[in-house]
Sequence to fold (1326 residues):
Amino acid sequence: MSKFLLKRLIMMLLTMLCASFLVFAVCEFTPGSVARKSLGPFATQQQVDILSEKLKANDPLIVRYGRWLGVLVGAIPDPLQDPSTGLNFKDPRGAQYFGNFGYSTLNKLPVNDVIWSRLGNTAILAGLAFLLIVPLSIIFGILSGLKEGGVLDRTLSVICITFTSIPEFASGVFLVTLFVILWPVLPGTSPLNNDGGWAVPYQFVLPVAVLVIYDFGYVARMIRVSMIGVMERPYIRTAVLKGMSTRRMVLGHALRNGMIAPFTVLLLQINFLISGVVVTELVFAYPGFGRLILDASLFGDIATLEAATLITVAVAVVTQLLGDLGYMLLDPRIRVK
Amino acid sequence: MAVQDNIDGIKVAAAKRAARPNWMRIFHSKTAIVGLFLVVFWVAAAVLAPVLPLPSPTDSDVMAMGNPFPSATHWLGTDILGRDVLARLIFGARTVLFVAPLSVAVAMIVGIAMGMVAGYYGGWIDTLISRFSDIVLAFPVLVIYVILIANIGPSVLNIVIATTIASSPGIGRITRGLVLGLKEQEYIAAAKLRAESTLYIMLVELLPNCRSLLIVDACLRIGYTIITIGILGFLGLGLPPPNPDWGGMVKESVTVLNVWPLMSLIPSAALVSLVLGFNLLADGMREAWKP
Amino acid sequence: MNLSVSNLQGAAMSDAPNSELEPLLDIRDLRIEFRGKSETVVAVPKLSISVRPGESYGLVGESGCGKSTTAMAIMGYLGNTGVIAGGSIRFDGKELVGARERELRAIRGRRIAMVYQDPMSALNPVKTIGSQLAEVPLLHLGSTKAEAMEMAAAMLDDVRLPDAGDMLKRYPHQLSGGQQQRVVIAMALLARPSLLLLDEPTTGLDVTVEAAVIDLIGELRRRYSTSLLFISHNLGLIAETCDRVGIMYSGEMVEEGTTGDLFRRPRHPYTQGLIDCIPDIGSGKHSRALAAIPGHIPLPQERPVGCFFAPRCAGFTAGLCDNPGLALTEAGADHLVRCARWPEMERSIRSLPVERAQVVPKEEAIALSDVTKLYRIGADKTVKANEAVSFGARKAEIVALVGESGCGKSTLARIVTGLDSATSGSIRMAGENIAELQARQRPRDMLQSIQMIFQNPDSTLNPSHSAAFSIRRSIKKFGIRKGKAAIEERVRELLEMVRLSPTVADRKPNQLSGGQKQRIAIARAFAADPSLIVADEPVSALDVSVQAAVVTLLLDIQKEKHTTMLFISHDLALVRHVADKVVVMYLGKVMEQGTVEEVFGRGTHPYTEALISAIRSPNLDEAPRERIRLTGETPSPVNVPAGCRFATRCHRKVGAICDTVAPPIRQMSETHQIACHIEEERLRAELPIYVLATGGNE
Fold:
């Protein structure tokens, strides 16, 4: 087991390395240089060039990537924080430490000051959404899958398919129209402070609703397919012909087998909820991780983008690992030889 | 819970059904028909756009600016810049129904090739392709799009590239799974015994048996790509103006949501209806083609 | 002790159930329909069966005859579309048709239990054996969990599974097929039901494992006085295990009676045909032809008026046989027949004039020498699929490769054809050594000369293409004919050769029956005009009557074209009929090889003895001298025993030497070799398992 975990850990690090390098490479295409972004649009070209020299921004890609990696692990100090640049970028934690994601040229702050709180906000949103998605999708999925083609199945399926067709901005717009404009019971933005006069908990309702609407249908369909597959298996017939009532058979056999595959799917939703919710955050002005990625991409703030990439990939790999572990736990065919 | 092996009579009927081209079976499913109707509606709108009696989607009608209510000249009103909403809707369908299927088609070709090679050869090729796919799949799809488009700029080509990068690993995985199962079939061994080339086996013996599943997946992906294009438009990463873009339309009118909600709701509804069409169609196809 | 012999002489194990007792299961005029969205199919029009207490009733029929449907109807489990549209099923006096769900639940598993065909899928893979077994007493006997587990452990002992305590915690995938079936049997008998339904319980199990399972069922049913409804397509099995038999054809009962009477004096032409389809131990292809029943089993909508079998019956008489309302009539004490002309239907014993045994040319067509195939799995484990396999086949000879699962015969087939390559050894054919050459490395003419017929008719043809597609490709690739017209003509010729109408060529495989698909597979193999054909279980997946027809066809073609054939099978009776030479394999090694008379005759390897003694024949006068029951399981090919591979289960083990030293090859005659530690004289001294009535052996 420990060998397995070690192997996965190495894979994770490799994946993170590859992903961060790829992002670095893609960012090459962005117009504008780090120097320009640090100094702002009003600096002269000459000042920009001097700074670029100082930052060695014209070195080949690999070298610059290596340098970034070095800063990250604490091997070298962040060149942007070098006082000789005159930029006055200060990081209270120092210029050289492990986990130094560098300096955000967009926010004029150390990345570490920006990213973690945003991640935390999104985590809250994701957590709330997840808490709703899990029971909803399980109920819909199981009820649909138990009797394929039945009235319940058809009704629930149509609901699920319809909801997966409604992207977040569409449902956002619709819900806001309904609950903010026509019938003002909820806030239209969720900046997570009390400035607008709405208590913070109310600010979660609509963003969570939008996320849940879009996502639970997909998971429910996955669960449905799994349940249908299980109900066709011969061991269900064995259970029934042993004299089991439907209820006992479902609880004792069908669910047990039918939830193995969906378990992984559910976990992967965490992945989506952490990183893919940029639209919801934009619609509701929610200070979250997704918006951070968007803003960083648009501006070309490589440091923040790289940091976000690493976190995203880490979350993805960890959820995948948890999914695989869960699979091993639930399915003895994999666990025991 | 059907007693499958003994329903010979129904098997005969099924065999007769199978003799008909399998496209016909779709019409047995109500969901498929509704989906098909929605899709055909928008495709017709997109195709007929230039000949329909619509005002121009890009000209601003200064007089009727910002009037979302239906009027004689503007059946669905105008947006904040005075452009006709209905025209923009229909021309927007044109854009989206060109870009999305194109992107998915390219992604399919790349993905199927990857999956076939990985599944058929196995070994280190499989490991390499699968590892690479894992890296790409580790990113939530939207992040890939955002990072790519923000950096290389929005254009049809770039959206195709982004879709290919984002979608082909998933398609590859499905294909690989199918091929892994199929390559042990005896007719593949028979093909090897008559010196058929690997390319032949992949294209002629394996691919046709993956067809129905891949078509269903493609349909779903088109729906999803339409959503993504809409989201890109909403984020400001859509195709540059003046191309009418449903997501862009929502973005522009969201600022005035509290005054003219309809302006945002209409393009949203349009997008939802088209995606719903593809999703229902895919579901109907899946039902019809179940083995 | 490895020896376990039960002296069962042939037929019915009638413990003389008292025929005056009320029947335990009484089915009268049962009508089962399947109501689809647009059509209704009558699976079973009118069926009556009765099973008396303590009796074992065998229900025999080929696919589509409705026997499994009937079992499901008894249990009340016909699915969403199945309906009992008429008739009654009385169990112990209680009417089951229309009974409430709760009543059915009380009976299922408790009074009537079921054993299924595929034990692996009948068990839930994620629950332990113990928990699945314990469900029965928890449901029906009101036990506590602890009590239920104890009962489960006791039951595992009863079914002879070792180490019950450990077994309870294991999962189904950790057990072998035979062990899984024992668990299913244990589960069924836990609540001591009065009636046990068995739906093809041993299909898919190795013959030696099957024999043990059948023994077990017999022993347990006698102990618990359970009645059996035994459903199978295997006539021989039914003949030896059941008291009474019912033959079903296309949903109808066509003949019913006590086993002894029915198999000795079958009255219905279908029964006679079925029995004649089965090869027997005493004669090969030169002295007997397998019967072929022309035509096919009618689907429910194709059933003619009157006798369903009429279109295929040689004795069809218009006016008599097509009268509606043909009923079962008495043809003797406790013997019913549904035939209008039964007194005149005499069984014709089909035997050919004893031919001069064909002069087989002496030239070697293919010679295998020390062929070994090892697979590496993981870092340190090796699977020894084949080791030092040596034998040869002469031109136009049929060499049969026999063995049970894991013996390596299929791997060997793949190596010979080039789908796999050997790790070492040589296979010489036409002067070349092809052992380590895979198909794509072989020269075109070599590839053309070795073709293969596969096992599974459902996957032998590509479902997306027409049936003749691969035949056309083969003709084209090997340049046999050029040009579309010439190719089409050749396709027509080939289809005619396998007795198929040319309209079949453009149909899709899912519109064809198993027999038709397998014929196309034969046509495809011969399309390349090969000199060697490897047939890997070519008929195992087909109905009995279809098997006979396809085998006969294959033999005819082979004889005409002088093709050498490597015939792989686990069915020894079939091998006896088909082969000229036999090679017996066990766990990757050759145990014995010789002419078919030698291997089936006097002085054979102990494993061959056990295999042959497991053959069951519907010919009740053909009884084995003794039934050899092998204990234990086949070892895994990863952990092969040192010394003789068969030593762990051998009933004639010499001693410790068998476990440590590899056995020497005993040359019993010029053509006959046995790998065994027993000396030649002692081997020769053993009588053959089957003492043949007529002695009509060549």
Q: What stands out?
A: The beta strands of chain A are 103-104, 109-110. Chain A touches chain B through 56 residues (CB under 8 Å). The first strand of chain A starts at residue 103 and ends at 104. The mean pLDDT of chain A is 83.
